[in-house]
Structures are given as structure tokens and as C-alpha cells.
Recover the amino acids of this structure.
């Protein structure tokens, strides 16, 4: 797909999101927060769900956590326009509560479609929910953060959520160090070099279902 085709496809998808009244958090949300960035991004960041400021502005990561994310992106010489930022959930959960499994499932076809359009080289998951969506249950973020994994043909690098670093300051340097690894990992992927990644266990049923549903969007 050309960049124009990708741009157009993302716009069509955002219009579908705007009209999709079946989505569980649509009625309580002020704005859709589909995500934003380059349609040709090599890096796709996937957070959890929009918060109050994101809901008010219709843009991802524009609150306090977003400010730190911007700082992290800048620390590897990139800008928001170079990457793509999305969330598992495209509407704010009331009171910023954790998303329910059925909500993650309901929004997953939108995320899957975004990935099939953008075709990023690497997906950086921000926080536990996003890590679990891509890599499955039972993994500990404290053990695998900053380590690229291959799953279902995708390269996924789990990282802490930037909001976690706002509460516990000792995570700031951890996130910075994980970000610092990204350019090197991408260079290796571009060269087609084997990262010697271990394939993690089979895709979850949830993800399989979402992948098949994205083709309907
Ligand atoms: N936290 C998230 O996970 N996503 C946002 O867009 C904002 C805060």
C-alpha cells in the first residue's frame, strides 16, 4: 500500500469507529480516540485506554503520562509524527477504571485493522494489559520488559506504562533504558538479521477472533 492508501484506509477505519454504536464504552465517551501518527510508522506504541484528557481532546497520550512518553520518544531522536500511538480501547472507561476483558475483545478488531494497514516493524506495548493482549497471560512485566519477543509473526517489545513511572520514580530510568534499545533492534530488523527471538506460545483465542473480525471492518 502507498502512504496515501494507508492514510485513506485509516480514515475509513476512524469513520467506522465513529459510527459503531455497538462498542461498549461509546455512550459514555466524549470523543473517539482511535490513535494517531505516521501511517508508515515502523514503531507502533499500544497503550491501554484513553484517560480524561484524551477523551476531551480525542487524542492518545496527551495527559501527564503522554508528556513523559513524548520525552521518551524524543530521547531516541524521534517525534510523534514518526511513530504511531494507539490504545487497546478507543473510548475512555468511566472513571479511568481498568478495561474489562470483554471490552478489550470488543475493540480488538479496530487495533488489528490498524496494524494490518500500518504494518509496523515492531509493536511496543505500554503496560500490563497491552502486553497480555499481544503476548498472553501469565507473563511478568518486571521480568520481560525491554526484551523483544516474536509472537505470531509479530515483533513485540513490552515496556512499562509511562504512567507507572509517574507513581514510582525508579521506573523512569528503566523506561529510558528500554527505549534506548529500540533504534538498535529496529536496525537489526531492517537488515533482516535474526534477533534470536523465542517464539512465545500460541496465539490466544481472543486474538485469533479479533484478527478474523478485522477483515470485516
Ligand atoms: N494511558 C493510556 O494507556 N493511553 C492513553 O492514551 C493515555 C493514558
Amino acid at each position: 500500500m502507498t502512504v496515501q492508501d494507508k492514510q485513506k484506509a485509516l480514515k475509513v477505519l476512524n469513520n467506522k469507529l465513529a459510527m459503531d454504536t455497538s462498542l461498549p464504552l461509546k455512550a459514555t465517551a466524549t470523543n473517539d480516540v482511535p490513535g494517531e501518527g505516521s501511517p508508515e510508522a515502523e514503531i507502533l506504541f499500544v497503550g491501554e485506554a484513553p484517560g480524561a484528557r484524551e477523551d476531551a481532546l480525542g487524542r492518545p497520550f496527551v495527559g501527564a503520562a503522554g508528556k513523559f512518553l513524548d520525552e521518551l520518544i524524543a530521547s531516541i531522536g524521534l517525534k510523534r509524527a514518526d511513530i504511531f500511538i494507539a490504545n487497546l480501547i478507543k473510548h475512555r472507561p468511566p472513571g479511568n477504571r481498568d478495561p474489562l476483558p470483554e471490552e478489550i475483545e470488543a475493540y480488538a478488531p479496530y487495533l488489528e485493522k490498524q496494524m494490518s494497514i500500518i504494518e509496523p516493524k515492531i509493536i511496543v506495548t505500554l503496560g500490563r494489559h497491552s502486553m497480555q493482549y499481544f503476548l498472553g497471560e501469565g507473563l511478568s512485566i518486571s521480568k520481560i520488559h525491554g526484551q523483544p519477543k516474536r509472537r505470531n509473526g509479530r515483533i513485540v517489545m513490552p515496556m512499562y506504562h509511562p504512567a507507572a513511572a509517574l507513581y514510582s520514580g525508579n521506573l523512569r530510568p528503566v523506561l529510558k533504558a528500554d527505549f534506548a534499545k529500540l533504534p538498535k533492534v529496529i536496525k537489526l530488523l531492517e537488515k533482516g538479521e535474526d534477533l534470536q527471538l523465542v517464539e512465545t506460545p500460541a496465539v490466544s483465542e481472543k486474538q485469533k477472533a479479533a484478527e478474523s473480525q478485522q477483515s470485516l471492518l
Remarks:
- The first strand starts at residue 36 and ends at 37.
